[in-house]
Design brief:
Length: 237
C-alpha cells in the first residue's frame, strides 16, 4: 500500500471509509488457537470525553455479544483521567462485569496519557498475546516520536492498534495515524452522526481479535456493506 492510502478518514464518507477498511486489511492475522481472544479496550477519560464514554459503555456490549458467538473474548478496560491517574482492570469475559466497571468511572479534567496506554499494552502482550488494541480519544498532548517508537514495538509483536478519534483535532490526528500505521492497525475519525457504523466496526475488530478473518467473514453476512468490504479485504491473511 502506498503512503497516500494511509490517510485519516471520517466514517461519514464512503470513499474514506473504504480507505480505513483497506488499512484494517493489512493488520496481522490472528491465530485461532481455541482460546479466547484478548482485546485491550483503552479510552481517554478526561473531561471532554464524558459523552463518548457513555456511548462506549453501550458499544462494548455488542463487542462481547458478537465475539461470544464465535468462541469468546477477554477484554481489559484501560483508561486515564485527571492529573496522572491511569487505571486498568483485570480481564473480563462477560459484558455485565465490564459494563459495571465502566459505569463507575467519571471523566475528569487532565492531560492525555497515551504513552502509558501503549507501554501497558506492550507489557500485557509480552506476558500473553493481545490480538488487538482499541483506543478511543479526541486529542493528544504528548511527544509523537515517543509514541511512534512504542507503536513500532507493538507492530513487531503483531499487536495492532485501532484508533477511533472523536472529531478532527489536527495534532492528534497526525499522531494517531502514525501509531496505527506503525503498529499495523488502522485509524478512523467519527462524530455524533456516525454511531451506527462505529458500532459495527468496533464489533468487527472484536470478532477479528477473537477468531480471525474467517470469523469476521461469518459476522459480516448480515451486516452493512462497510463490514462486508472489510471481510473481503481480510481474506487470505
Amino acid at each position: 500500500m502506498s503512503s497516500n492510502d494511509k490517510h485519516p478518514v471520517k466514517v461519514s464518507s464512503k470513499h474514506e471509509l473504504d480507505a480505513f477498511l483497506e488499512q484494517v486489511s493489512n493488520a496481522p492475522a490472528t491465530l485461532n488457537t481455541g482460546a479466547e481472544g484478548r482485546l485491550l479496550f483503552a479510552l481517554d477519560a478526561t473531561a471532554s470525553r464524558q459523552r463518548t464514554w457513555d456511548q462506549a459503555c453501550h458499544l462494548q456490549s455488542e463487542m462481547f455479544l458478537e465475539a461470544g458467538k464465535i468462541g469468546g473474548l477477554q477484554v481489559q478496560l484501560c483508561y486515564y483521567q485527571g492529573y496522572g491517574l491511569f487505571e486498568h482492570t483485570g480481564w473480563f469475559n462477560n459484558t455485565r462485569a465490564l459494563l459495571d466497571r465502566m459505569n463507575r468511572v467519571s471523566c475528569v479534567a487532565g492531560q492525555t496519557q497515551l504513552l502509558r496506554v501503549l507501554n501497558h499494552a506492550l507489557l500485557e502482550t509480552r506476558t500473553r498475546k493481545i490480538q488487538a488494541v482499541i483506543f478511543i480519544g479526541d486529542c493528544l498532548e504528548e511527544p509523537a516520536d515517543k509514541l511512534a517508537r512504542l507503536a513500532g514495538e507493538l507492530g513487531l509483536l503483531s499487536t495492532p492498534v485501532f484508533i477511533f478519534q472523536e472529531g478532527n483535532e489536527l495534532v492528534a490526528k497526525r499522531a494517531f495515524k502514525e501509531i496505527a500505521r506503525l503498529s499495523g492497525g488502522a485509524y478512523c475519525s467519527f462524530n455524533a452522526g456516525s454511531a451506527q457504523i462505529l458500532r459495527q466496526l468496533l464489533a468487527a475488530v472484536a470478532v477479528y481479535a477473537a477468531g480471525g478473518p474467517k470469523a469476521l467473514e461469518n459476522f459480516a453476512k448480515d451486516k452493512s456493506g462497510e463490514v462486508l468490504q472489510l471481510t473481503h479485504q481480510l481474506k487470505g491473511h
